[in-house]
Amino acid sequence: MSDRFELVGKRVVITGGTSGIGLAAARAFLDVGAQVVVNGRSAARGQEALQDLETRGSAWFVPGDTVNEDDAAALAQAAEAHMGGVDVIVCAAGLNRRGTPQDLGLDDWDAVMDASLKGTFVIARAFYPALCRSGDGRIVTLGSMMSVLANEASAPYAAAKGGVVQLTRSLAVAWAQDGIRANCVLPGWVDTPLTRQARKDIPDLDRRVRERTPIGRWAEPEEISGAILFLASPAARFITGTAIPVDGGYLVRG
Fold it and tell me: Choosing from 127, 157, 175, 250, which is the catalytic residue?
């Protein structure tokens, strides 16, 4: 029974892996003995993240944009070259642009949808052959509370993250026959550079989050990693097509 959570030697690719939840997940995988390739658009941020990750284990950085099919193919090829295959992909890339629907433009809509939803689709397709070869391929996507809820200032983000859940379910159904499981994690309010900016933009956000969250605080990025590692582990072998909130109880409070 001791190997139910074993991830030693597993080959993991994490998009959006140079900051926030993606970087925390990369650290967590390395700490349990996996190999990790992280991806992001900023070469400078990637090299900075790599300096930390390499102290923990076998890690590589491959720059690229997840919505670019050539970049996605290059990432898949680089991961194969570095690790000899891929067992797990974690799709953590994304961004948000806040504003009421009437004040947001199509460029805002496209940027958010591309980063969160289109990029997840492009990466999943690019890694499909490698995940098939793994024999036990696993996809973990990152949704959000906004996959379920809504507010006045996040229409593109809510649409994109809702789409990520449905895309993940579709991948789970389509690729189960190939030995691939796909699941989604729905983080609550997490202390990241993105949400620190949100707290500057929305003065009473911190108070509202703490009041509604039963645990009474913001999550640390590392606290989302546990669910990601679980879904990537043998212990979750019969779980696919689900979306798991990791939100301190935020969604259950009316």
Answer: 157
